[in-house]
Design brief:
The structure holds two protein chains of two kinds. Chain A is of the alpha/beta class. Helix content of chain A is about 30%, strand content about 30%. Chain A has seven helices and 13 strands. In chain A, the strands form two sheets. Chain A has an eleven-stranded mixed β-sheet with strand order 4-3-5-6-7-8-9-13-12-11-10, with helices on both faces. Chain A has a two-stranded antiparallel ribbon with strand order 1-2. In chain A, helix 7 links the parallel strand 6 and strand 7. In chain A, helix 2 crosses helix 3 and helix 4 packs across helix 5. Chain A is globular and about 45 Å long. By secondary structure, chain B is of the alpha/beta class. In chain B, about 30% of the residues lie in helices and about 20% in strands. In chain B, the strands form five sheets. In chain B, strands 1, 6, 7, 8, 9, 10, 11, 12, 13 and 14 form a ten-stranded mixed β-sheet that branches. Chains A and B meet through helix 1, strand 1, helix 3, strand 4 and helix 4 of A and strand 2, helix 8, strand 5 and helix 9 of B.
């Protein structure tokens, strides 16, 4: 079949040095960051663990709300869903693409929306309340938290922190960071990120443009390591 | 195994007779498979009194198997409460991804795939990127949208590194920064992207920016003459692409002589748009697609509403798969006060007025035959000194093109861009 022959051909091609290159901003300056294939595999394993902690398993269905430029953060969750045997759909983060998130939420047996942001939540308008009634497990970006709360949801937080992503577990006591890869520090409430693992992208105490509170110590979910609560 | 010229040389250049034999083998596997599993196929075939046992050859298939239209899918969806419109052949849980059509011509329809490593919609696109010249170690600028899944899989299959920066609406200023830093060899463009690049070209040396490019792909809508000339002046070789009835993608090769349909993954037909007779090579026909590589939601003789010209003659590039030239959408022809025209006529007219040269417009029509020509047109505020003056000149060129004076709704370009869907602007809308 075509997929099989294409995969075979791709196997014969020298693999790229990197999985991809993403971009985040430090203040007004863009930072391009490299993601190696090993980085991506470890990120996927971590994403799989986080999704599983929310009960995502065979029989679930996901809508992942994230645009193409956000793939360095969200592709590991897409891949993790596939590895868990869970069908997923993608809602882009433009207001005019919000209809697609709604379409999947209305038509499919979706059990979780992951990553909804303010742009999409606002564009969904009055539909949002109906969606969160049908799909009670919602992972939201911090900028969408208030809108979702108004709509009756109790979302868990999903937030990009510079080149990293942090995700709350069902206990919702701060978003877990993958401590094997990243470390956060707070200086006067400003969050600074450093690489702690052997990633292609190395950064040290870089301000990510967010204010937040860090929590250490074990979480009720059993994970240890840092959790972060983003402040408005 | 890829060579210097082709990504999958044995498949891309296989003799026509072998390709037809391969298609027949796949079609004859597909027929009982979909009849047993697809509720829509079963319903439509039973209505047509066709059974799998009646289909013993490719000729039987194209002569006897009934067509399926988008309306059939929507009707089944609404009547049966089946989100997939009767196309799903597996359990939903067996799908890996569920995506949807652009939704520019109505309610988007769902399609699903199962896969392990590379998304099947893009698996054959590696052949097209290889043809453009994408090679291991190259950088490729990511596409602006993800509604059809990870197009960057095709980059990665070629050993290239995708630059995942915004190339969607409003993202091109940052994309130019990434181009300067990484010197990618390829990017995916759309009409909406061209509107942005048009603005950016006033303050950037686009020839220098695009000097690293081996090519850029363009899809979603026709490429207007002005945009084509702009890209040429920037030194960008453009490769048009489109979809084959939402089954897979089809790209031009370096000959720029039609889009290659990968016929190992899709059975492509061109039929009489108002009937069912097959059209001869080179004649206008409606694109009909059958999935040969999707066991989850296979399309079976799906009438796409896309009007094409098609040829099965080998291409000058050495490939043997069919090529086609998109001409327009069935139903796009509009008749106003006895005058017939297609959206491209308005497009060309607007390109003549500097303030509307990006040709961002929507034809507002409640039906195919209308009494008044209503057009929503985007203008560039940076170039516009007098809206009444722009209105007069736009009215003049549209009247000359169509034969009827339009009722114009002039809006800043940004207002039109905000009406885009899936990287393109619906050109024909009801309101």
């Amino acid at each position: 079949m075509t997929s099989a022959s294409g995969t075979a051909a791709a196997t014969a091609v020298p693999p790229a040095r990197l999985w991809g290159i993403g971009r985040y901003d430090l203040g007004d300056s863009p930072v391009y960051f490299e993601i190696s294939w090993d980085d991506w595999r470890r990120d996927t394993a971590w994403a799989r663990d986080m999704l599983a902690s929310h009960g995502v398993s065979r029989g679930s269905g996901l809508v992942i709300v994230g645009g193409m430029p956000e793939s360095p953060w969200f592709d590991p969750f897409e891949t993790a869903a596939r590895e868990l045997g869970v069908p997923y759909s993608i809602g882009d983060v433009y207001p005019f693409e919000a209809f697609r998130t709604s379409l999947y939420a209305r038509r499919l047996p979706i059990t979780m929306i992951f990553g909804i942001d303010r742009t999409v939540a606002e564009a969904l308008g009055s539909e949002l309340a109906g969606i969160v009634v049908r799909i009670p497990v919602v992972g939201a970006r911090p900028d969408a938290a208030a809108l979702l709360a108004d709509a009756g949801a109790q979302p868990f937080m999903v937030t990009r922190v510079g080149p990293a992503i942090a995700v709350e577990c069902p206990h919702r006591t701060g978003a877990h960071l993958n401590g094997a890869e990243w470390t956060l520090a707070a200086r006067d409430g400003e969050l600074l990120i450093s690489t702690s693992g052997s990633r292609a992208h190395q950064v040290s105490d870089a301000p990510v443009g967010l204010r937040g509170v860090l929590t250490s110590g074990p979480c009720a979910c059993g994970r240890t390591g840092q959790r972060v609560t983003i402040m408005a | 195994m890829p060579d210097d010229r082709f990504f999958e040389p044995e498949i891309e250049t296989m003799p026509r007779s072998s390709l037809v034999a391969l298609q027949e083998e796949r079609v004859l596997e597909l027929v009982p498979y979909v009849y047993e599993r697809s509720p829509l196929v079963r319903k439509i075939w039973e209505e047509a009194r066709v059974k799998p046992g009646d289909i013993n050859s490719l000729a039987d298939f194209t002569e006897r198997v009934p067509f399926i239209t988008k309306d059939d899918i929507r009707r089944f969806r609404d009547q049966a409460g089946d989100p997939f419109g009767g196309l799903l052949c597996t359990d939903y849980r067996d799908a890996a991804t569920v995506f949807s059509t652009s939704g520019t011509t109505g309610d988007a329809t769902l399609y699903a795939h199962t896969w392990d490593q590379w998304h099947p919609f893009w698996a054959a696109t590696a052949r097209d990127l290889w043809e453009i010249g994408v090679r291991p170690g190259d950088y490729v600028l990511g596409s602006g949208f993800k509604m059809r899944g990870p197009l960057y899989h095709a980059d990665q299959m070629c050993g290239a590194i995708p630059l995942m920066v915004s190339t969607g609406i409003g993202g091109w200023a940052t994309a130019l920064d990434a181009i300067r830093r990484y010197r990618p060899v390829c990017a995916t463009l759309t009409g909406l992207a061209m509107a942005e690049l048009d603005h950016l070209s006033r303050s950037n040396d686009m020839t220098d920016i695009f000097s690293s490019f081996k090519g850029a792909t363009f899809a979603g809508e026709p490429l207007g003459a002005r945009a084509r000339e702009q890209l040429r002046s920037w030194g960008v070789q453009v490769y048009l692409w489109t979809s084959t009835g939402d089954v897979t993608a089809a790209f031009e090769c370096g000959q720029h002589d039609g889009c290659h349909a990968w016929e190992d993954s899709v059975l492509l037909e061109a039929v009489d748009p108002s009937g069912s007779a097959p059209m001869a090579d080179g004649e206008l026909g409606e694109l009909v697609a059958t999935s040969l590589d999707n066991p989850v939601t296979p399309m079976v003789r799906f009438r796409s509403d896309d009007i094409i010209r098609m040829t099965r003659e080998p291409c000058g590039c050495g490939r043997t798969h069919a090529r086609f030239w998109p001409v327009g959408r069935k139903g796009d022809e509009t008749i106003v006060a006895g005058h017939s025209f297609v959206p491209m006529d308005i497009w060309r007219a607007l390109e003549q007025v500097p303030e509307t040269a990006t040709a961002l417009f929507q034809l507002v029509r409640p039906g195919r035959e209308i009494d008044e020509l209503k057009v929503r047109v985007g203008y560039d505020p940076d170039l516009t000194r007098s809206i009444p003056d722009v209105r007069d000149r736009v009215s003049e060129v549209i009247t000359a093109a169509v034969g009827v004076p339009p009722m114009l709704d002039l809006l800043p370009e940004s207002d039109l861009l905000a009406r885009g869907r899936g990287g393109k602007l619906p050109r024909v809308v009801k309101s």
